[in-house]
């Protein structure tokens, strides 16, 4: 198959980061594939050289009528070829099975569009591209694992911190660091998919529920790590943070035994380049924050109600608490993992959020605490900024 000619024919005006082709036997028929990863979209070509063919564009969104949704919404549009409702369904199914998050161009020319054939097409792509940049096994593009590896090296080499990385992503097969603890020694998404016949998202949810049930396995290893700053590399599927409770419960257990946590919610800048996607990102980030970092101020309301001077303002206090909880704000910090100044800027925000600067010996004076409260830079921040 002439890949260059196909790309030219499809008029893809985008920077290509990776492209490859291969052939496979799908239900007794030779099938040729082309897989391409571009800056703003992905490309899949699957052909059994039938005369009937279609090209579809599949977009992925997390909002519907301005409301943030838990599951991604896949919209399919036929660009050319013969009308085929089964082809549209196949394009949607393959996009979902591969967990693709960017826009997808998919060209299909198949002998039939039965569920078995389409599922075999998706499996063939999965099997061949397991080590390629296709799909979203770990929410590709947001850079969680890259960030964890980079910030670990940065803290060790530049800040002389004792740091360890804990991998809690049961589908993380391409780590750029050596984890002190690896959840894949306990359970993996691949094993769960094979043994329980689940899809990737269902298998990932099962894995996190399994980790929650076997929290002692994690705790027994954590207690062996002494006096270290820990970085947890987490899975990327959004449903784990918007409505599923296992990760939230695991974090709660860690906090109860004295771990001071800060969640770094990473968003691909690609989703901030379009107004509609940016609004979706804001809503998703807010939903994640309220699910994972729940600021439960009800305890404060109870204290106010018991106070001799404040209990008469019970309704006002309740309204204020509700206002604070219902209108939490979201803001983003730009991150370039190749820039030490960018890493330093994020480090300062994280250190304030998890309280590291207050207990590390770096910042303990009352003046430093007050400076942080009003947003001023601490002494270590000024030193680090000048140093870099």
Quick recap:
By secondary structure, the protein is an alpha/beta fold. The protein has 16 helices and nine strands.
SSE inventory with pairings:
Layout: H1 3-9, E1 16-26, E2 29-38, E3 41-47, E4 54-64, E5 67-81, H2 85-97, E6 103-109, H3 115-128, H4 144-159, E7 163-167, E8 181-182, H5 189-196, H6 200-213, H7 215-222, E9 229-233, H8 239-242, H9 246-256, H10 275-292, H11 298-306, H12 314-326, H13 340-354, H14 356-359, H15 366-373, H16 379-387
Parallel strand pairs: 3-6, 7-8, 7-9
Antiparallel strand pairs: 1-2, 2-3, 4-5, 4-6
Describe the structure.
Pfam families: ATP_bind_1, PAC3. One of its GO terms (cellular component) is cytoplasm. GO terms for molecular function: GTP binding; GTPase activity. This is GPN-loop GTPase 2. This protein has helices at 3-9, 85-97, 115-128, 144-159, 189-196, 200-213, 215-222, 239-242, 246-256, 275-292, 298-306, 314-326, 340-354, 356-359, 366-373, 379-387; strands at residues 16-26, 29-38, 41-47, 54-64, 67-81, 103-109, 163-167, 181-182, 229-233. With 388 residues, it is an alpha/beta fold. Helix 2 (85-97) runs parallel beside helix 3 (115-128), helix 5 packs across helix 6 and helix 6 (200-213) runs parallel beside helix 9 (246-256). The longest helix has 18 residues, at 275-292.
């Amino acid at each position: 198959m002439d890949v260059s000619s196909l790309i030219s024919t499809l008029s893809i005006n985008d920077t290509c980061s990776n492209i490859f082709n291969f052939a496979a036997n799908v239900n007794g028929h030779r099938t040729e594939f082309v897989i391409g990863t571009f800056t703003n979209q992905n490309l899949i070509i699957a052909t059994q050289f039938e005369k009937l063919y279609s090209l579809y564009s599949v977009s992925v969104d997390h909002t519907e009528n301005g409301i943030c949704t838990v599951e991604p919404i896949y919209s399919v549009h036929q660009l050319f070829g013969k009308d085929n409702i089964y082809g549209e369904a196949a394009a949607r199914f393959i996009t979902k099975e591969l967990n693709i998050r960017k826009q997808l161009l998919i060209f299909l020319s198949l002998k039939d569009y039965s569920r078995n054939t389409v599922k075999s097409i998706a499996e063939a792509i999965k099997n061949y591209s397991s080590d390629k940049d296709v799909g979203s096994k770990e929410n590709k593009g947001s850079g969680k694992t890259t960030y964890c590896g980079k910030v670990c090296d940065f803290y060790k080499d530049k800040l002389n911190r004792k740091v360890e990385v804990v991998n809690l992503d049961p589908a993380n097969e391409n780590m750029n660091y050596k984890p002190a603890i690896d959840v894949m020694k306990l359970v993996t998404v691949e094993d769960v998919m094979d043994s329980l016949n689940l899809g990737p998202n269902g298998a990932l949810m099962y894995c996190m529920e399994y980790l929650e049930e076997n929290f002692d396995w994690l705790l027994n290893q954590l207690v062996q790590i002494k006096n270290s700053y820990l970085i947890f590399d987490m899975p990327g599927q959004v449903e784990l943070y918007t409505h599923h409770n296992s990760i939230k419960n695991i974090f709660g257990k860690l906090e109860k035994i004295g771990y001071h946590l800060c969640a770094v919610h990473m968003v691909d800048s690609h989703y901030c380049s379009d107004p509609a996607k940016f609004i979706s990102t804001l809503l998703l980030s807010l939903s994640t924050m309220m699910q994972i970092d729940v600021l439960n101020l009800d305890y404060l309301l109870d204290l106010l109600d018991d106070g001799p001077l404040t209990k008469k303002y019970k309704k006002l206090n309740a309204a204020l608490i509700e206002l604070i909880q219902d209108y939490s704000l979201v803001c983003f910090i730009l991150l370039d993992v190749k820039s030490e100044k960018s890493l330093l800027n994020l480090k300062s925000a994280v250190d304030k959020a998890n309280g590291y600067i207050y207990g590390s010996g770096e910042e303990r004076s009352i003046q430093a605490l007050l400076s942080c409260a009003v947003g001023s830079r601490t002494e270590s921040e000024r030193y680090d900024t000048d140093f870099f």
